[in-house]
Structures are given as C-alpha cells and as structure tokens.
C-alpha cells in the first residue's frame, strides 16, 4: 500500500474500480491548508483521461505491471492477434483495448502492458509515430496554397489522414499515433 507521496509519472494505480496510469502529477503545498497532489490519470483499459486530486498521505493501491514488446500479426472481427518476439507465444486483445488501432500494420511492434500477478493484458501502446504509404489521395487544387490547406488521404492500413496538398499516392508519410495527424513526408 503506497501513499500519495509515492505518486510518480508512469505509476499504475487502482482507482474507482479501474487501473490508471499517472501521466502527469504536481505536488502542491499551499501557504494555507494541507498539501495535496494534483494528477492526470489515464485508464489503461479504455484510454480515458481524468483529473484527480489526492490529499497528502492518502492511501493508494499500486498495481504492479510489466511491459513486453509484441509483434502485431493480424486482426479478425473481434480483435487483434500479437506474437511475443522472445518465446513466440501469441496473445489476443479486444478492439477497444487499443487506441488508434487503424494505424497498425502487420509486423508493427507494439508495447503491451500486462498485470504482473496473472499476466492478463491491460492495454497496448503503439509507438509515438508510424510510417505509412498513401494509397489514395484527393487531387490538390492549384492555387490553393496561400494557407495550410489540407486534403483527405487514405493510407495502407485504411485510415483516413489529413495531409498537405503536395502529398500524392505512393508517398510515404510519418503519422502521429496519438491523434492520427500527419507529421512529415518521408524521403527514401
């Protein structure tokens, strides 16, 4: 059993019948009144982010987790199949356990968070960005470059990404997995 003084970035805790990962925290000692810890918590099961404040000395339930690298194999109507690169064992995750799963392509390496006690999977984290090939893009309108104009494009995984007008089918682009936004064109 830990206290609110032990809160740090990356810590997994059990809170209101769910498991949350601390993504931001701030220890506050006001001039008047007791100290407290202001946190931003992300649910590892559904990805929702909540703000919460713990008073100083508040007891929290720390959850021991382990992370492993898995290779994405394929998906079916219910979820995704992954393979552990060390022992070649396979793991199955439901579709709702992965945020922005439409940016994953076969062979992609994903970090999966497992509960240490029974090794049940909690969630999966994609890398910060992925490199994808544009398979279809709307035509760019000539003369429409005075502002940062964007157009629709479909990448090899089937995801829709807003890209600049100069991107054409066949180009490789770097896409953020956090929000699915275009980052840059990749030169080969």
From TrEMBL:
Respond yes or no to whether keyword Cytoplasm is given for this record: yes
In what pathway does it function?
Protein biosynthesis; polypeptide chain elongation
Entry-linked InterPro entries: Elong-fact-P_C, NA-bd_OB-fold, Rib_uL2_dom2, Transl_elong_fac_P/YeiP, Transl_elong_KOW-like, Transl_elong_P/YeiP_cen, Transl_elong_P/YeiP_CS, Transl_elongation_fac_P
What keywords tag this UniProt record?
Cytoplasm, Elongation factor, Protein biosynthesis
Q: Which residues form the Elongation factor P C-terminal domain?
A: 130-185
Q: Which SUPFAM superfamilies match?
A: Nucleic acid-binding proteins, Translation proteins SH3-like domain
Q: Which Pfam families match?
A: EFP, EFP_N, Elong-fact-P_C
What is the role of this chain?
Answer: Involved in peptide bond synthesis. Stimulates efficient translation and peptide-bond synthesis on native or reconstituted 70S ribosomes in vitro. Probably functions indirectly by altering the affinity of the ribosome for aminoacyl-tRNA, thus increasing their reactivity as acceptors for peptidyl transferase.
* Family of the protein in this entry: Belongs to the elongation factor P family.
Name of this protein: Elongation factor P
